[in-house]
Protein 1
Amino acid sequence: MASVNVVLFSWIFFLALFVTLTTSNPVVRRGFCLSLCGDVNNVTCPSGYDCLSNGCGHQCYRTTFQQPPGCPMMKCAYNCPLGFVRDENGCEGCDCDYSRLTQGSSTGTQA
């Protein structure tokens, strides 16, 4: 009877250890390795966003932005690295805003 208890206890211990190890270490996802904003390319983020590291490069993340009153709260299926397009009322939609980037320009400003 004692050997059955030892075997049962061992199985429970290893099962608990396995569950603890597999759930306590979240997967750290590294972002893409392009710096889409910041001092490297002089591209600034829109108001309400900050240029932060994504683990490899830099992109704009919402920090203080809130939809203006009367705008619907959007739940977009993806993240936009430079923010979302805003309509004439300042409301964000789910289209990415790449207007800060221009082809052939390293400054990120319109020529």
Protein 2
Amino acid sequence: MDMKCKVCGKENEAGATVCADCGSPLEEALYEETTAETPDSSWYYVSDGQSLGPYTEADMRGFLAGNVIDRSTYVWKNGMPDWKHLEDTELAVYLQRQSAYDQQAQYGGQNQTGGNTYNTYNTYNNYSSTLVPRSVKERGLLTCVLLSFVTCSIYQWYWIYAMAKDINDLAAAQDKPRGCDPMVALLMSIISCGLYTIYFFWREGRVLASLDYPNYKPSNDTTVLTILALFTPLISSVILQSDINDIVRYGE
């Protein structure tokens, strides 16, 4: 390679250290081959049986944030002897960061919804870890029926009050529309000589049917409850209480 003098411009033989004309020292010209630049960490990952890449570490971090890949995704980069799960590589550090970010976003969202008291103070003090309030208990159906007969239906008025309260607590725990006010249900049932109970059983049946639990879905007995309330309100009470008992038993 000829060496060109930067002072006089003369072309000198390769290996010369000074210019043959002016005697100026020569600097070797530097030439760089234009090659495709490979990032320090060229990552590949497997999706649907196909290898995709190469990607930079920043790209992989973005894929994690967007749920394109996860901890079980097979990944590989230059220098690794074989494919590995992402959680077994240096990328696992981003799993911890992503998890911390998700938790922060979750709790931040809950703190912003301060209008619902059942999601803050009452959830901690009155409810268990599930959506069934601790105040709602099972009641023995036979005991309630016998007490209604023995007290000449007086106990049945209290029973209606108690069921209305339990159903409202269940609905409030899931932030669903509530049913009848317990005291209103009691007074209106007495004043209307039982006619109000028709509306009561219709509305409470709809509230129970709207509830949903991870391992249990209450049955919709609204029609049966309403029809039976026209003739035998006591049987409607038995069915409604049975539905509440099932929620307490299976809604945990």
Protein 3
Amino acid sequence: MDSVWKKSVGLIGLLLLSTSAMTADIGACAEIESVKKRLACYDDLAGRVQEKMAEVDAKPTSTQEREAIRQEAVAVVIGEKPEADAFKIKRVYRNRLNRITYIADDGRRFKNQASGTSAFRSGDAVRLKEGFLGAKVLVRTDGLRAKVKEISPES
């Protein structure tokens, strides 16, 4: 159905753009006495219209091809989600204001964003996952979760 509309719009546009030229050509064809020659003249006019309609039909194909290429590029760029970062908690540090910081075995530090209670202990194996709206969540092997913020090692 979509191609029928495109063809009809293309044909109407073609007819509107070349109305005077077509009128002269159709008039010239109508004046031909021989039936075969007149039919050949009309076929020649129709052939020009068919060529223009073929050009109109060729554009959606190229658009579809561009869309397919774009989808392939998106798949390559985005790729698959990386696996969750897994590590062990080396130390749980509580400062004077009772704020908790987890120090990973690779040296990274994570500040607990949740309540003042410590969710994890030293030696717990955890994974760092992406949470809602880019939040970072530490998840223990038994499923216990804590929202954290990664901080610089100097803090």
Protein 4
Amino acid sequence: MPLPLERSLSDVLPVAPATSSALASPAFALEFHSPAREGRITKADRIQQALLATALNFFSHLPVELMLMIFTEVISEETSSCDYTFLYAGLYTHRRLAAVCKWWHAVIKGIPPRTGRRLYCNVNLSISTSMTPMSAGDMASMLRDYLANSGNENLNVLIDLRCATGSLRPCALALIAQSHRWRSARIVGDLHDEDARSALAMLTGRLPVLQTLEFGHIPATEINETTEEVDFGFLAHAPALTELFLLGPFSASLINITIPSNNIIRSFGCDGIEAYVLLDYLDEMPGLQELDFAYDDYEEDGDESADPEPVTTSLGLPYLTKLILRNTAYAVKSFFIAAVSLPAIEKVIFSKDGFHVAAALTALKDRKRQRGDADGVITRFLH
């Protein structure tokens, strides 16, 4: 059933100007905010207004509430009154590329970030993307149009490497081909998949403006309960993780790296000790300003007091101002033993077991005060 619109997008877009300066419609803006309509606006009215506002108004300045309404009521909900195929087709068929670019950017930017996520995405290429009624060919064509017509603006990207296989492979390859524009990236998936590895290998030397890099694994909710052998995530073992970092060299502009907790991996029998290989690569990122490191040194035999082999790398992170270390005392102690030079550190955040590092904290604060920093280091404990 089509959307109950008084005016369809096919009526609007053929006469809609393609220039962003002419996309505003004062008459529509007055109608959209007309006091006379307040109090009698139905859900169909809201959907209509969202669609028309998307097609005609200042896309990049629409309020978050409106963008959220478009996303939840028109795109996500699989109801008979929400024909989101019509929404995609209406914008895409008429090739108003400026409108497509503005719409895509505004919708993605308008989605409130999930807990723990600091980034919005210009492009969110996840496995759920394939669950829309839009054909993979049209989706890839629309993505290429967006990338080609969004100028040289930097991209904030979420890419699930599972999209490197199957029908979404053209989308993944098109996005990776633009990796020289990636300002921030969250990469999720299984590095052991051959297609995923070949897709990721295309990033070699193509990250000149990357500033934020976040690694993630497949969420637990997406793991089939009948799976007998699980090898998800970049933290599964050291060789895969090492190979990922050797794909660089990463840009000197890299200022933030988030390393997720390997708790899900641990639940399948990995003790996660290999995560320390990351410390060997931090000195390749001299501009690093913030480090959020989640780690768990769970032992299969239940002896949580047993320490892995100590980290021997001596690190110097001259620009690091914020350090977040989670979950285990050993991870905290090891980092402070290894990273002996943190001249710019301002804030240190530990998990609740941080009492084991009181001596390291005291020494760090003393060094700050000796340099004339009366405030020392701001310390907070997570609970």
